[in-house]
Write a structure and sequence with these properties.
Number of helices: 27
Keywords: Coiled coil
CATH topology of the largest domain: TIM Barrel
Number of strands: 31
InterPro entries: Biofilm_reg_signaling, EAL_dom, EAL_sf, GAF, GAF-like_dom_sf, GGDEF_dom, Nucleotide_cyclase, Rev_trsase/Diguanyl_cyclase
CATH superfamily of the largest domain: EAL domain
Coiled coil: 634-661
Radius of gyration: 36 Å
Domain GGDEF: 365-497
Pfam family, one: GAF
Strand order of the largest sheet: 20-21-23-24-25-26-29-30
CATH architecture of the largest domain: Alpha-Beta Barrel
Largest sheet: 8 strands, mixed, barrel
């Protein structure tokens, strides 16, 4: 924020000097305000900062050292509420002791002005952790503005007449109640009673505006007949006085007998001797009407200007209480709901499940837990991006809500996993419940220009048949889900006891894999790639193996799914990269010319720190990046082609000579045309096409009459990939070569390199130093 011009700054400093000369800020009133803000937002620091020419002083603070000051920060002079999610990224904040000494990262401030309008500082809320407060939206700014308005009002100096009697209502007591988090009715009841005590002969009430109606919150002295008449009023011209107040206009009625706006309530008012009424809107600092505050008098024209000033002050305090209540409700909702879909999250789901089970125990009822996982959602997410995936999840959530009853709970546990808690009349109703869920997902999903056939697998467990408590019930549903995904897609499985053993096996394997990664108990194998032109080894592909202490040597197919579900893929990649560079360093010292190719998972690629990690490892072990090749898949790249291309270019720029191979080419969603956008060096043809070349009615490089369509397709695809790859200057590699016939066909088609068990089996990486001496077998 630019520094103010000299003259306005002098005026501002003069106003600050007058404030300090008059005794400074009212500590007794400001501490409850600070406590209110800190409680509502959950921040450990709340302070009033006064800004002079050189520094920020904090005369009233919670969570700051006594007498703490900081060099001037113009954020404390921002003319409107200001929220900074992470102040450490701002040069202005970086040098402040608030950041350096106290570790402040998050800041939310409201301007503090004198009654004359001079900006002298800010009422601020600070946290030592960065925050994303965007979800709070206008509620957070409304709270800040309400705090600022209350702080400014507290600086007013009453005249002699006002000083002669206590302030009405007692602001400090009400602010303290709000700050302590007292229930809204208790705050408003204290406020109305205090106003009635200070103004004998007056009655007060507060109504809250909700859904186009005024809902009576408190009316401590109002007769029951009149209170009932005002209980839940629709805002229509028929209730003119209250409708006008709900639109933001003060309505003062000197005598209800002659005012047509009070016609609907005239009899009830006169029955109890009420003549004068004032309805004052309760307005947030953003201008939104939150409710109405009413004063009633037995005297005609009995509501004087002095009483109207007290009413206005009471309405401001009511606004602060209502704003705090709204923010608290928003925070509580966010803590218990999924931000993407609006469904209950894991915490609220557990709470509702416990309540449902407790009711079933009392009534001998049945409860079904349906755990649902979308089939192949990851493929959609990787291919089309997270924005498309998020919109698809939102539509799935909408359909699931529509497929169940109001008494059922649909929750999102995370990712593409949902759970449904359904009380049932009998266990026999569970299949129909699961089938309704699957049917709801059967129609195609349309997201922007994309159409998806999305299916789900469902695991079902029942109380009391399968479990007696919430945790066991969910664990049983997870076991059933695992069986459903392994059996057939778009199906449901009911829990059986044997499934527990399968789930326990998987969880045991995940724990063991995590331990193996921690102690480096995995082993890296390598499979050679041969150049068909020379017959010599051109490169090796690194393949991870796990020497399991009980199950022997495990191939990736036995544990990669466990690694993905357990969030271990990035750690696994990091281990493979380091081991690969250790061996490349050794090969360099021995003068061996081989490259080493490593697979890069989607988890590592999305993190965006691959270049930095590989650069640090290459520098540590003295490896030329040209000796390294990274293999990526189509699915990984296609979720955001432009971003993927940019990341690959950054990788190659930071690691000069690094090669990038596109693995399993031809299997994904994409077309060949996108290749020209990507900085690739190698295409690896998907092994499925190579496998189709093994049929005896294929003769290189032509297809015999009557060959199956899959064989003709495989030959056409490989021929096209070789031609396109060479046109783009790329090397073309064929994987999965397992016969002399395949090798001969691929040689005739012009493939550059081959890899497979026929030409070279994987072996421990430490044993392959001399593998280049073995030529490729004859076709």
């Amino acid at each position: 924020m630019p520094r103010p011009a000299a003259a306005p700054e002098r005026a501002r400093l003069a106003a600050l000097a007058r404030l300090r000369a008059a005794g400074g800020v009212p500590v007794g009133l400001y501490k409850p305000l600070l406590a209110l803000g800190a409680h509502a937002l959950g921040t450990p620091i709340a302070a009033v900062g006064l800004v002079d020419a050189a520094q920020v002083a904090f005369p009233v603070a919670l969570g700051l050292p006594a007498g703490f000051t900081a060099p001037r920060l113009d954020a404390f002079l921002h003319p409107a509420p200001l929220v900074v999610g992470d102040v450490s990224s701002s040069p202005d904040w970086a040098a402040s002791p608030l950041v350096g000494a106290l570790g402040v990262r998050f800041y939310a401030g409201a301007p503090l002005r004198t009654p004359a309008g001079q900006l002298v500082g800010a009422l601020s809320l600070m946290d030592r952790a960065p925050r994303d407060a965007s979800d709070l939206g206008g509620d957070l700014f409304a709270l800040l503005e309400a705090l600022a308005a209350a702080a400014t009002a507290a600086l007013e100096r009453p005249g002699p007449k006002r000083r002669a009697r206590p302030a009405n209502p007692p602001r400090a007591e009400v602010l303290e109640l709000i700050a302590r988090g007292a229930p809204l009715p208790a705050v408003l009841l204290h406020l109305t009673r205090a106003l009635e005590a200070a103004q004998p002969g007056l009655w007060a009430s507060v109504s809250r505006l909700e859904g186009g109606r005024l809902l009576l919150e408190v009316a401590p002295s109002l007769p029951n007949t009149l209170a009932r008449a005002l209980e839940a009023l629709p805002i229509t011209p028929r209730v003119g006085a209250l409708a006008a107040a709900a639109r933001g206009e003060r309505v003062l009625t000197a005598d209800v007998r002659s005012d047509p706006l009070w016609h609907p309530f005239r009899f009830a008012a006169l029955q109890h001797g009420l003549h004068a009424v004032c309805a004052d809107p309760i307005v947030s600092d953003e201008g939104e009407v939150l409710g109405t505050f009413h004063l009633y008098s037995r005297e005609v024209a009995g509501i004087t200007e002095e009483r109207l000033r007290d009413l206005r002050e009471a309405a401001q305090l009511a606004s602060l209480a209502l704003t705090r209540e709204r923010l608290q409700q928003r925070l509580q909702h966010q803590a218990r709901h999924d931000p993407l879909t609006g469904l209950p999250n894991r915490a609220l789901m557990h709470e509702r499940l416990e309540q449902t089970l407790a009711h079933a125990q009392r009534t001998s009822g049945v409860v079904a837990a349906l755990l649902l996982d979308l089939d192949d959602f990851k493929r959609v997410n990787d291919a089309l991006g997270h924005a498309t995936g998020d919109r698809l999840l939102q539509e799935v959530a909408r359909r699931l809500r529509a497929a169940v009853r109001a008494l059922d709970t649909v929750a999102r546990l995370g990712g593409d996993e949902f759970v449904i808690i359904a009380p049932l009349a009998a266990a026999e109703d569970a299949p129909a419940c699961a089938q309704r869920v699957l049917e709801a997902l059967r129609p195609p999903f349309k997201v922007q220009e994309h159409t998806f056939e999305m299916r789900a697998s469902v695991g079902v467990s029942l109380y009391p048949c399968d479990a007696q408590d919430a945790e066991t019930l969910l664990r049983a549903a997870d076991s059933a889900l695992y069986a459903a995904k392994g059996d057939a897609r778009a199906s449901f499985h009911r829990y059986q006891q044997a499934m527990t053993e399968t789930l326990e096996t998987r969880l045991t394997l995940e724990v063991a894999l995590r331990e193996a990664l921690a102690v480096g108990a995995l082993e890296l194998f390598a499979q050679p790639r041969f150049a068909l032109r020379t017959g010599a080894v051109a490169a090796f592909e690194a393949l991870v193996r796990w020497p399991h202490p009980e199950r022997g040597l495990l191939l990736p197919g036995c544990f990669l799914e466990v690694a993905e579900r357990g969030g271990l893929m990035a750690s696994l990649d990091a281990w493979v990269f380091e081991q690969a560079l250790v061996h490349l360093s050794r090969w360099q010292r021995l003068g061996l010319p081989y490259r080493l190719s490593c697979n890069l998972s989607a988890a590592s690629f999305r993190r965006g720190d691959v270049a930095a990690g590989l650069g640090e490892l290459a520098g540590r072990y003295g490896v030329d990046p040209a000796r390294l090749e990274l293999e990526v898949t189509e699915d990984l790249l296609m979720h955001d082609l432009d971003r993927a291309a940019q990341q690959l270019r950054q990788l190659k720029a930071q690691l000069p000579g690094l090669r990038v191979a596109l693995d399993d080419f031809g299997r994904g969603y994409s077309s060949l045309a996108y290749l020209r956008h990507l900085p690739l060096d190698t295409l690896k043809i998907d092994r499925a096409f190579v496998a189709d070349l093994a049929a005896p009615n294929l003769a290189a490089p032509r297809v015999r009459e009557g060959a199956p369509r899959t064989q003709r397709t495989a030959l056409a695809v490989i021929r096209a990939v070789v031609a396109l790859g060479h046109e783009l200057g790329l090397s073309v590699v064929a994987e999965g070569v397992e016969s002399a016939a395949q090798l001969g066909m691929l040689t005739a088609l012009g493939v550059d390199e081959v890899q497979g068990f026929f030409v070279g089996s994987p072996a421990p990486l430490r044993e392959v130093a001399g593998a280049g001496a073995a030529p490729v077998p004859d076709a």
